[in-house]
C-alpha cells in the first residue's frame, strides 16, 4: 500500500489549484474577448491564449481540466471562424400611430395596440384582419371596462410575398382602423 506524506499531498493540491487558476484566467480572458467582439462587431476570430505552462517557476502539469479548456477554446475559435462575426444587432423599432391604433415594427415582428369603445365583435374583426394578412399572433393581452376595450398584440410574419413586412403590417392596421371606425 502506498502512502504519501503531508508535504506531498499539500504540494500536489497547490499545483492543482494553480492549474485551476490558470484555467480560470484563460476562460475569463476568452469571455472578455467575446464580449468585446460582440460589442464592437469585430470580424476577427476569437483565439484565447494558451494557459501558462509555468506557474511561479514550477511547471504546470497538463490536467484534464486544462485539456478540456483547450479543447473548448479550439471549438469556440473554429465555430467563430465558421459563423463569421458576431450576430447582427436587432433591427430598430419603427412606430406609426393613428387615433386608436399604434403599430411598432422591428424585423418581422410587430406590436399592435388597439383601443376602441366597447362594441360587439371588435376582437373578432381584428383577428380576422390579421388572419387575412397571414400575420401570426405570438402573444395577446386584452383589457376592457364598461366603456372601452384595449388589445395589445405581439405579431409575427413568417414569409413575405410581394409586400414588405412594414407595408403588410400597415395595410392590416389600416384595415383594422376602418373596422373600428364603423
From TrEMBL:
Localization annotation: Nucleus
> What superkingdom does the record give?
Eukaryota
Any one GO MF term held by the record is: DNA-binding transcription factor activity
User: Is Protease a UniProt keyword of this protein?
Assistant: no
Sections of the chain in a coiled coil: none
A single Gene Ontology biological process assigned to it is: endosperm development
> Among its keywords, does the record have Iron-sulfur?
no
- Which positions fall inside the Plant bHLH transcription factor ACT-like domain? 100-172
**Chief place of localization:** nucleus
Keywords recorded for this protein, A-Z: Nucleus
- Write down what this protein is called: Plant bHLH transcription factor ACT-like domain-containing protein
Species annotation: Eleusine coracana subsp. coracana
Amino acid at each position: 500500500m502506498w502512502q504519501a506524506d503531508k508535504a506531498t499531498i499539500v504540494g500536489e493540491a497547490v499545483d492543482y489549484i494553480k492549474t485551476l487558476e490558470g484555467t480560470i484566467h484563460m476562460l475569463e480572458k476568452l469571455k472578455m474577448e467575446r464580449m468585446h467582439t460582440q460589442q464592437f462587431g469585430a470580424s476577427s476570430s476569437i483565439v484565447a491564449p494558451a494557459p501558462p505552462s509555468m506557474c511561479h517557476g514550477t511547471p504546470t502539469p497538463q490536467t484534464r481540466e486544462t485539456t478540456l479548456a483547450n479543447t473548448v477554446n479550439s471549438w469556440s475559435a473554429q465555430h467563430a471562424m465558421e459563423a463569421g462575426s458576431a450576430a447582427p444587432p436587432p433591427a430598430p423599432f419603427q412606430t406609426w400611430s393613428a387615433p386608436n391604433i399604434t403599430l411598432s415594427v422591428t424585423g418581422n415582428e410587430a406590436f399592435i395596440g388597439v383601443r376602441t369603445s366597447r362594441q360587439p365583435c371588435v376582437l373578432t374583426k381584428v383577428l380576422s384582419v390579421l388572419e387575412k394578412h397571414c400575420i401570426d399572433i405570438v402573444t395577446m393581452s386584452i383589457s376592457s371596462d364598461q366603456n372601452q376595450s384595449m388589445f395589445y398584440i405581439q405579431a409575427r410574419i413568417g414569409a413575405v410575398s410581394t409586400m414588405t413586412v412594414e407595408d403588410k403590417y400597415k395595410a392590416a392596421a389600416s384595415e383594422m382602423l376602418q373596422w373600428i371606425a364603423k
